[in-house]
Write a structure and sequence with these properties.
The protein is of the alpha/beta class and about 160 residues long. The chain contains 6 helices and 8 strands, in the order H-E-E-E-E-E-H-E-H-E-H-E-H-H.
């Protein structure tokens, strides 16, 4: 059994928003959205993508993450294509929906632009972890600043790196 042979198996998921005016007309799991679509649509489903969002599949994220968990995934690395590299913050609706759909850990990715975005995602969507890449690689926000920000006046646990002697 795969589950017995490996401690953790992380599955990356890269969905994007698809807006719909009426959830009853969509075969995929839809949720109400606080961010209406370009034509005022009040519902959204998250379509799975491949190749960095360049190709789409007729598969919703809820169905995919549920299948991944059933097949033995130990964690979901959740990347929202719509937010990737924007610095506008994480997609709380997506993260909360996926978190409610599985019992394995969910790692939120895509959209962080400042330390406050990390606090916001933990408070609004309760992921097991959150990550960013670009803001740290481009040195826009120091990692230590984010960790200090979260540790101060917050109940969000933060791992601190131990300096080697």
């Amino acid at each position: 059994c795969i589950r017995d042979r490996y401690q953790r198996r992380v599955h990356g998921v890269d969905p994007k928003r698809v807006y719909v005016p009426d959830q009853r007309t969509c075969k995929h799991h839809t949720i109400p959205t606080a961010t209406p679509g370009p034509n005022g649509e009040g519902y959204v489903w998250y379509q799975c993508t491949v190749k960095g969002g360049r190709e789409v599949a007729d598969l919703g994220v809820k169905e995919l993450v549920s299948a991944c968990e059933h097949l033995g995934a130990g964690e979901i690395l959740l990347n929202c294509i719509d937010r990737d590299g924007t610095g506008q913050g994480f997609d709380h609706e997506l993260i909360a929906m996926v978190k409610a759909s599985v019992s394995i850990p969910v790692i939120a990715s895509s959209g962080a632009g400042c330390a406050q975005h990390f606090r916001d995602v933990f408070e609004a969507a309760d992921p097991d972890a959150a990550l960013a890449a670009g803001i740290f690689h481009r040195e826009e926000v120091p990692l230590a600043h984010v960790k200090d920000f979260l540790a101060k006046d917050s109940k969000i646990p933060v791992r601190h790196t131990v300096e080697k002697e």
